[in-house]
Amino acid sequence: MMRKHRFLRADFGFVQYPLPPPPHLCLKNNEMEKNDSKSFTANFEVDSSPQHVFNCIKEIPKWWTSDFCGNNAKLHDEFVICHPGAHYSKQQLIELIPGKKLVWLVTESELSWLKNKDEWTGTKMVFDISHERDMTKLQFTHEGLIPEKECYDRCTQGWNMVIKEQLFNFVTDGKTI
Length: 177
Description:
- By secondary structure, the chain is α+β, with helices and mostly antiparallel strands.
- It is built from four helices and eight strands; from the N terminus they run βαβααββββββα.
- Strands 1-2-8-7-6-5-4-3 form an eight-stranded antiparallel sheet, covered by helices on one side.
- Strand 3 (68-70) and strand 4 form a beta hairpin.
């Protein structure tokens, strides 16, 4: 079977949200609540089933980083990504709809190259999966990763590589990092 690949752009990587996140997930000074409409997104479409895309997302060490410790299989599981001297983040799986959606809440973070090292804490990584016209679309949104953040430029470059290249290649060809 020949695979069809198509990348989609969402207005230069931004997506609009109609409602702000709950107050308990907001960053210091309600930063996320005021700016959530500009959260970073990355998208792609593949000729694969939604369940296949969902299953691939859950295999973090194969597409994001081998610096992974913990679990990401069931609701409330926690895992850590740690690149010594550069990045530490602890995520909790807060939403899980098989074949449709995964949401990770960043509960702790330290990006050592920033002045505000915990910029990711309280943000969410959302993977929305939909199926239309014989194609499966993945929309990744890092809610709270907004242009006003010090890490925005470097993180958007990183996420574009991780989502549009590494995850895409793993989903389509089984290519691991």
